[in-house]
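Continuing the batch. This is chain 6 of the set; chains 1 through 5 are on the previous pages. Same settings as before, nothing changed between runs. Recording input and output for traceability.
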Amino acid sequence: MKQKQTPIRLFFSYAVIASLLFLALLALIVPLTSGGDRAIAAMILIGSYAVIIVLFYQIYLNYVKPVKGITAILNELIKGNYKVRAQESFHHDTGRLAYSVNRLARNLQDLNRQEKMHDRQLRTVIDNMESGIMLIDEQGYVHLVNRKFTEQFGKSVADYHDKLYYEVIDRRKIHQTVQEAFLYEQTVKESITLEHDSKKSYIEIVGAPFFNEKHDLRGVVLVFHDITDLKRVEQMRKDFVANVSHELKTPITSIKGFAETILDDDATDAAVQRKFLTIIYNESDRLQALIHDLLELSKLEKEEMKLKLSKVNIANLIEDSIDIVRGQAEKKAITLNFKFDEDLVLTGDAARLKQVILNLLYNAINYTPNDGAIYIEAKKINHAFEIAIKDNGIGIPRSMLSRIFERFYRVDKARSRNTGGTGLGLAIVKHIVEAHHGSIHVKSELNKGSRFSVRLPIN
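Output for chain 6:
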């Protein structure tokens, strides 16, 4: 309001000064004239006064007032208010000035809008990255952390922003990474382990310095990659190599040992030789089964594996599988009970699905004691079929349920070998089920039994 009153006050100040000046001239000049000259002099002075007042008013309207208004607009632009606009007059000079100021305001508004949009886009990209980000300036203050970082280390963005990094992070390796990146002005890598809710996660830290146009060091960017999955895969690979070596070593050692005994001892009687040869045969059979399952698993894991799809009657598939395992179940006096709905027909690979059912049935028989019972059920649930195989066997400890589908993982290693298992059956089952876009679940209680359920989509 004060800025609007100032030009008016200025105009009235000039008007009062001009009025006083003309009154003084009128008082000085009129007395010096006489008769008709006095009237003419008075009229000339009054006319000149009127012309000057009009000129003052025009200068005020066309220059003083627009310039004051444009000054106010520029002050608003300096404050960051890019929505203000100057009133464009028809006067050539001030009109062009107002037009230029308005163009400047529109350009600044567009630039501000684009900057905000780019800032939102950049923030969205940074916040949705699967790696944690921390930006530290040359003085050690944290200027940016993203959503993933707060998930990894806890707290909120406000707890880190504008704080010294060593005050808000208590990890020595992170401090070391930052210091080395500043000191050597090169990318530095480190790794740490985090624990949340008794779960371990492995984090790789990459510290990279960043520079301005003059190549002056301006700070360090820390990127926190979650490599837990890579570590798990690496550990699985190591376990797989160790397990394969161990599984192959046992039968080969037995075969070699008994063969050497037969060759070195000519006095061995026929009964002992037959016993040794039987052991060699059984061990070679076990070795063959292991190699077969390894090749089968390798084939299933290949992305180019193709299923031979056809219409499959689940009831017929289960009945055929039960006929195959019935003999083994009868040796242990295990009762096989089955119940299934009619017209359970889906699209799938019949041979592979039969392999799934047989593997689960053999597992149930092997881990169920004599005089036990196995229940097989198949039914339709929404747009899928569920095949469930339940036993009252030894069960699986809760801590081991998450690992039973790993290759060579055994709940009871001694018993698995005695039953002739290779440790690859459930891994094969899982791959076949997932190839059919299905899922497999297990519920188990130690010494009470297990229930494996396979869900397969109808199509």
